[in-house]
Amino acid sequence: MSQLPLNELFVAQRTILLRTLQRIVNHPSTAEDLLHETWLRVDRVLKDRNIDHLEPFVFQTARNLALDHLRANRNRARTVVDNIPSAHLHNISACSTSLDDAIHAVRLVDHLNRNIASLSPRQQRIFSLSRLHGCSYLEIAKQLDVSVSTVQKELKLIMAICVGVAERLNDS
């Protein structure tokens, strides 16, 4: 199918689509990202099949992407906070005040580096994008061409490994 009808529709409906997305996600730059993702998704579908009612399809795709984004954020917030005991969070943010604390911190970083190095390249990339570069699950999923659910599951596994390393080191 020609790109002209899709492009014309997006030019004509861009403002309405963007406002709709902004109302759902309540964040202008996220709405812009979702608008772009909507165009990409619809374009991909149009390469495989013809859509008789393109405008409603575009709006429904945009709405679904926005709801997926909200659901992913809600799940991420629950996963990150609920799966890490508060005692571990306090240990991570505690300042090293003694030589023993400093030695413990160096050992912890060394153990974490070795465990992270043993992860698959994709897991290392997910960890780096999330924890070092501050990317959202959706941004990581787009960059690696995987689902948001995959990113969440991989990060949950990686964080469990990190917590396990800290617990083993604290027990020794």
Folded structure, characterized:
This protein is 83% helix and 0% strand. The protein has 172 residues and is an all-alpha fold. The mean pLDDT is 84.
Whole-angstrom Rg: 21 Å
How many domains would you count in the coordinates? Answer: 2
Number of helices: 8
| Shape field | elongated
Write a concise synopsis of the structure shown:
The chain has helices at residues 4-25, 28-48, 54-82, 86-93, 99-117, 121-132, 137-144, 148-171. It is an all-alpha fold and 172 residues long.
What's the SSE blueprint?
Elements: H1 4-25, H2 28-48, H3 54-82, H4 86-93, H5 99-117, H6 121-132, H7 137-144, H8 148-171
Helix pairs in contact: 1-2, 1-3, 2-3, 3-8, 5-8, 6-8, 7-8
